[in-house]
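User: Sequence for Hypoxanthine phosphoribosyltransferase below. Tokens please.
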Amino acid sequence: MDAEHMGKDLERVLVTEEEIHARLAELAQEIWDHYAGEEFLLVGVLKGAVLVMADLMRALPGSAPMDWMAVSSYGSGTKSSGVVRILKDLDTDITGRHVVIVEDIIDSGLTLSWIRANLESRGPKSVEICTLLRKPEAAKVQIDCRWVGFDIPNEFVVGYGLDFDEQYRNLRVVGTLAPHVYS
Ligand code: XMP
Ligand code: MG
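Assistant: Structure tokens for Hypoxanthine phosphoribosyltransferase:
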């Protein structure tokens, strides 16, 4: 799929590249200040958070290690079931460490609640969440997310790591898909 085609498949741009970079820079500074010199581990959730992680960590004023987890939540459907399976676990032991979960999007919040509880059971010093996007549905479950990039409407979005059938992750913006893509 060429770039022109990819662009035409978008119906509406919700967040531009400039807005994403500016907001991630703010969040990076807030995260850095929050830990006040103590080390924290960034834990990305594959695959959607790859681009958020790359830009967020480069915007940090200093060094921070990262690790990755992969979970399956949606399966083939489009609604989160809350049934989560670990496909790839962390490489590192988080006992006694500050952890920041880095996510692309919180929709129902079910996936992240599960991940957070799972990580908290491993005896970390703390667990916080940083997500680029959050949908209103997320407000329905009790999920305490300290750092949120943008609250967006309850629509399916792609780009900047988010996919439709594994496509569009490399779009530089976040947007909604045109109806012709689904049909
Ligand atoms: P829940 O509902 O458990 O789901 O918070 C979170 C995960 O679901 C995926 N997700 C999306 N992926 N566009 C996407 O490409 C979307 O609009 C969308 N909403 C949810 C995503 O993997 C997220 O981590
Ligand atoms: Mg996804």
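Residues 3-182 form a domain with the Rossmann fold fold (CATH 3.40.50.2020).
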